[in-house]
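**Backbone geometry record:**
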Amino acid sequence: MIQANGSQFKDEYGRTLMVRGVNLGGNSKVPFSPNGATYVRDNFFDHRNVSFVGRPFPVAEADKHFSRLKAWGLTFLRFLVTWEAIEHAGPGVYDQEYLDYVREIVAKAGEYGINLFIDPHQDVWSRFSGGDGAPGWTLEAVGLDMENFQETGAAIVHATYGDPFPRMIWPTNSGKLAAATMFTLFYGGNHFAPNTKVNGEPVQEYLQRHYINAILQVVQHLKDLPNVIGYDTMNEPLRGYIGWENLHEPGGLVTLGACPSPYQSMLLGAGMPQEVAVYGLGLTGIKQKGASLLNVARKSAWRSGYDCVWRQNGVWDLDSAGKPRLLRPDHFSHVDGRTVDFSNDYYRPFAKRFAKAIQAADPRALIFIETETGLKPPEWGKDDTDKIVFAPHWYDSYLLMQKSYSRLIAVDFFTVKPVLGTRSIRKSFVSQLAKLKEYAAKELNGVPTVLGEFGIPFDLDNKKSYSSGDFSVQEKAMDRIFQAIEANLLNCTIWNYTADNSNAHGDLWNDEDLSIFSRDQQKDKSNIHSGGRALQAVVRPYPRAIAGVPLRMSFDLKRCEFELEFKHDPAVNAPTELYVPDLQYPHGYRIEVSDGVYETKQDSQAVLYWHSRESRLHKIKIMPQV
């Protein structure tokens, strides 16, 4: 049993829990059939006739995957579902076969002692705007024509762009017309698009109502399963245009390739060619490297009979000579003379509404909240639910963008400033993750924190490791992150585990390849570790349950030495339990304790430690057998 208690997770014995696990799985972003991958063009726009049954893996394969994850000590899942998977066939039409499948998979995880929370996943709104998440009919409902997104610059989509797909280009969709429009309508339609309605219903209400009702279908199917502890509100929500101060400047999560400004995006979508800035990635960062003329064919991003949403709502219009002009340059940055704040003014009301609906259906459910990556979470008042968890994301930005590991160069995730030198990088990583815990303490009144996503690309240096089978560079990169996680005593779920990851197509989504497992590296199917990547860094000792408050934890990968220090809680009688993997100690291990007694459980890769009562502070050290 996992409960939120102050800033910690606790079990029924009062022990502090540390959860460690993985996102399952990267392939859940795309349908299982037909042709389930973002790079497949066939029938791409036939968005209603798809099935996600089989994501993250078929039921027949569940035992082998859950056995592997349990052996690796990854017994806490961030389990991906998408709105599209649930409601792809049309508004209010739910895929009962998929919902039954999800229940069967989740129940099977429980048989292996694996707990989880549900992640309604999305990236840049939808598969049809370059990511995943929302059904295609949501775009159609507001008048967007998905088949013209490429020509109009409204989105860059792998299936329509083709191969080779530019590296890390998909996040640029956050600032393009399709995704930015949909997120603005979803979170702020009442303020920024009051004239836009769907079947007479305000567009914000229409979109939020359908989204929440879709997730409620999952809740109804899972609410009696004890290993389901809660629900995320939405993966990496985006503000869209909300708060955008200069509509003449491009922006978003990443500025790469051809990036029109919001105003240019609106004009392009209306069929007006625009010369837009083109950006490229160099060793020192992203810089403009030229310009490109888009939409020469004068296609429209809007369906026949629909006009641009933002023209309808007075952002821009044509003058008497037929020339476009921007009428409200501050339309998205101010409401009633007040500067808007996405996290507090728009994400927070949605999160409260979501929490109320989910907990009405499942009162024990914890609500995992986040906001746009890099932003502070919303301020959480005493009148809001106290059953929440902060689930932010963090990545080694330099590694992710360059796909090359450096001991000497990194980038601060928050300031985007370079960090130079081995020691400075390690110190910076620790302080960056500490900032996330500070957010949980200050903005959210002290709630548990789970690092919901972190990970590394395995296709470093043009997939050099694939032919050699040597992932030692990736191990260094992963270990550096884990050291920062351990220094902050953080709970975490790695991004990600993809059951059908391949050398050619990675996680099957936008050419990303971050899975800690790959079937193409699986040489010996009888070996549970075969197919794992960077396992020496991933599969490491950690305390699952602590009879008190953890004070310090570390693992030295080179020496295979683990240390834990904690202060015991006099009210707790159950032992401290540690996961000690055979993978790290194939020839056995020895244990030093400051006091008390311990017992090893080789069959479950566990150590149980009973501290003495004479001292409040206790230390455990685990080392390889001499």
